[in-house]
Amino acid sequence: MSTVVERLNERRPVFSVEFFPPRDDDTDEAALWKAVRQLEPLDPAFVSVTYGAGGSSRGRTIRTTKRIADETTLAPVAHLTGVGHSKAELRNVVGWYAENGIRNVLVIRGDPPGDPAGEWVPHPEGIMYADEMVEMVSACGEFTIGVAAFPHGHPRSPDLETDTEHLVGKIRAGAHFAVAQLFFEPEYFLRLRDRLAARGCDVPMLPGVMPLTTKKTLAKSIELSGVDAPPELLRRLERFEDDPEGFRAAGIDAVTKICERLLAEDVLGLHFYTLNRSTATREIVDRLGLADSPVPVPAVA
Ligand SMILES: Cc1cc2nc3c(=O)[nH]c(=O)nc-3n(C[C@H](O)[C@H](O)[C@H](O)COP(=O)(O)OP(=O)(O)OC[C@H]3O[C@@H](n4cnc5c(N)ncnc54)[C@H](O)[C@@H]3O)c2cc1C
């Protein structure tokens, strides 16, 4: 099987997807696995599984990632965050990943539990920044390591240049690829890619994309990107305030346009934040011609 980095460097653009581990609830579990099975034939380059703050989802992240490794043809990437963990605990989790055949890890510092914008207090025997975790995971064995990137700069960073230096620090510490936080305007991602290139960093970096299917996904995208949506996009979507189907159609059109612009700029692929659903992602992937083979996409959300 190709490694994640080999897949990202394929000559044609690829796509990848992010899931979160479902709570121990049959409905959530079934929804996730339906999405996994529906995306599998489209051959995503990898599927990543998030890690709850402070290890709150540790067991579920390991279980979900292992099941993807064991029961599907997909390449799983397990997230790992440093919040609330000592370095010894982090090494243990990395050891469990390895024992379960998981060799791709997205290494993230994480946010303080409760209030993500609150004061960051490291575990007394833990890490301060993600670059230390990258070094630690590299030292644990043969892993393909991804890190988080922020087209608008991380909210805690004083400016874009400093933020870029810190991203470069994570890459120089041993990261093999990066996945970007959400943004609405491709120029912000492309400028970050230019800033990295100017510093001699050419690891693959994927833009993060969330299908705008509902008012809730729009609000989530604004929250995660850390910026307001462009007024033109808001005006287009506001027309569908009381028309969920119209909103979904306009939102998917808008996201498809963003993706088209990124692909025209030769991005290596697109990383979809799926919220454990697949229909909208499949629709966009299909429109962009990124699927391995054309796959029928149902008309309903
Ligand atoms: C693709 C992606 C996936 C994510 N997955 C998860 C997840 O699964 N679970 C979860 O809880 N959260 C997740 N997050 C959110 C993430 O935890 C937060 O955005 C967090 O605040 C930043 O993590 P980081 O790894 O970028 O931190 P860091 O790289 O450590 O950066 C944090 C801040 O410190 C600065 N900094 C970095 N290194 C240094 C240094 N050496 N010296 C001084 N300053 C430095 C940075 O510029 C930044 O301002 C994800 C985010 C992204 C983009």
TrEMBL record:
GO biological process: methionine biosynthetic process; tetrahydrofolate interconversion
Protein name listed in UniProt: Methylenetetrahydrofolate reductase
Keyword Oxidoreductase set for record: yes
Pfam families registered for this protein in UniProt: MTHFR
Cofactor(s), by name: FAD
Family, similarity comment: Belongs to the methylenetetrahydrofolate reductase family.
Oxidoreductase keyword on record: yes
Xref: CDD domains: MTHFR
